[in-house]
Specification:
homodimer, TIM Barrel, 8-stranded parallel beta barrel, 12 strands, 16% strand, globular
């Protein structure tokens, strides 16, 4: 799947992932009203609204981008109906040829991580058959429990030819509280980065590993160091745009082959119609606003990051 | 809810939580066969089997124990049908008067943690109404992203009078890989413990905080230190029994009031009938074996931990 992701990035010339994190506040009134009329002003109605919202955005952008990253929390908050909308979104995006990165940030002790890995990337055995649960292409993984929390994911990645992105340095303001703590003069995130590199060596695709890393756009100096620590890890970069990360700062996340990083934008794309810049589209044409925002983001990355040209 | 947990622990004289982590391999054949006959040998059938298995164990043990801890991964691996079984389990345990600790180990950047908190502990707004998604009483939270990943959970805990257990030192063999790293001579888990104490001060129940901690039974010396670092945090202790933690080692996790810790056992209880010790019950009476295993666990804790008598 890492090979497929790299191919799709080359094909689209767009190291971009659209974060499908549909807060209900982003969904235009006409979509919500229709969903509530159909399913009720309840969890089912909310789930229907975010699904219709996602579908329109995917339809308007899938030809421009290699991948999407649905954030499962935004679905999970609506209980079972929300989880159904998550699954529908994953399936639909795959139908449209997109690589799907499930932003699930799971991680637990060995046997439990195995269940997550099986449920999100692999197949679970039931009697003499086996079945996919959620069936994303990649998932994000939290490393706090160490190797035996991560390796079950890698095992399933090998079986299924799928991948993970391990949280190394997250984009949020307080990520440094624990991640930046110095251990013998070296920050914790760098130790995690070294482990990502080590884990990744056992699971190489053609040019990059099945084991990638999350490094926030908001910490470009750390991105520069981590690029060197994990040369074969694809870096998933959240925090561009709405969270403050700028294209000009992202050059060090890429390798000289113009590859090695994929930049996520969520709010900046899916709620583009709410920005002054795209207000002309109006809520009715929110998906066209998202398309324009994707085009502008690709242009922003290409014009600021030399290695992409 | 922390007050209710403490009351229930006093009432049962049992600082015990039963981990409802139903691997399909633990479910007796007759339960699986009936479920597959009814729903098919597929995800729905598997979900039905684990739900019936849980229900029987809860029915056989709820009068002895204060709380249960369903591990969501074991449900999530069966996709949507599994999530429905999780929700049914949570609801049923609450009907039986049990405190429900959702072992979800979630944690993300602020706005995303808020969605998890709302979905698992609070209510999500849809139009002019609001709805509970999964509605556990407590959840476990991963601290790797720092304060702004944890505080949204605390906000919802304050609104709903519910609680969290933050992962501090986990029970698995490789937990030390990052958690034990020394920072100015002090291990990372101790820094996390200090933050748990700090976060907890803003959210006190009568005698303990809404903010508890996870500290594995397999590391009793660290448990002793962490007990002092976080005097007002209830400690959820996984790793007893099957993972190797012994009752005699758990005294330091408790305070002098005989409270302050609650010990989890999953496999040792729910799959008791598979142990030689309880083989006489046979698969047909697996739930009775679980009841006996709970009685024995309570006795083991009481006879080894002075403060409980």
């Amino acid at each position: 799947m890492i090979n497929r992701l790299v191919d799709k990035i080359k094909e689209t010339s767009a190291p971009v992932v659209v974060g499908l994190d549909p807060m209900l506040g982003y969904v235009p009134e006409h979509i919500k009203n229709e969903a509530y009329a159909q399913k009720g002003e309840n969890l089912e109605g909310a789930a229907e609204a975010i699904w219709e919202f996602n579908k329109a955005i995917v339809d308007a952008t899938y030809d421009l981008i290699p991948a999407v990253k649905p954030q499962i929390a935004m679905y999970e908050q609506f209980g079972i109906p929300g989880m159904i909308a998550f699954k529908k979104t994953v399936d639909y995006c795959k139908e449209k040829g997109l690589v799907v990165i499930g932003d699930i940030k799971r991680g637990d002790i060995g046997s439990t991580s195995e269940a997550y890995a099986v449920g999100h990337l692999g197949k679970v055995a039931v009697g003499s058959n086996s079945f996919y649960g959620f069936d994303e292409d990649f998932v994000t993984v939290n490393p706090y429990l160490g190797s035996d929390g991560v390796k079950p994911f890698i095992k399933v990645c090998n079986e299924e030819k799928k991948g993970i992105f391990v949280l190394v340095k997250t984009s949020n303001p307080s990520s440094g509280e624990f991640q930046d703590r110095l251990i013998d003069g070296k920050p914790l995130y760098e130790y995690v980065g070294e482990m990502v590199d080590k884990w990744g060596q056992e699971t190489m695709g053609d040019s990059y590993s099945y084991v990638g890393a999350v490094v926030g756009a908001t910490y470009p100096k750390m991105g520069e160091i981590l690029r060197k620590v994990m040369p074969k890890a694809y870096i998933l970069v959240p925090g561009y745009g709405a969270q403050g990360g700028k294209a000009a700062d992202l050059a060090p996340y890429f390798n000289e082959d113009g590859l090695g990083a994929i930049v996520n934008s969520s709010r900046g794309i899916i709620a583009a119609y709410k920005q002054d810049k795209y207000a002309k589209f109006g809520p009715e044409c929110f998906a066209d606003a998202s398309r324009q925002a994707v085009i502008d983001m690709i242009e922003d990355l290409r014009s600021n990051i030399k290695v992409l040209n």
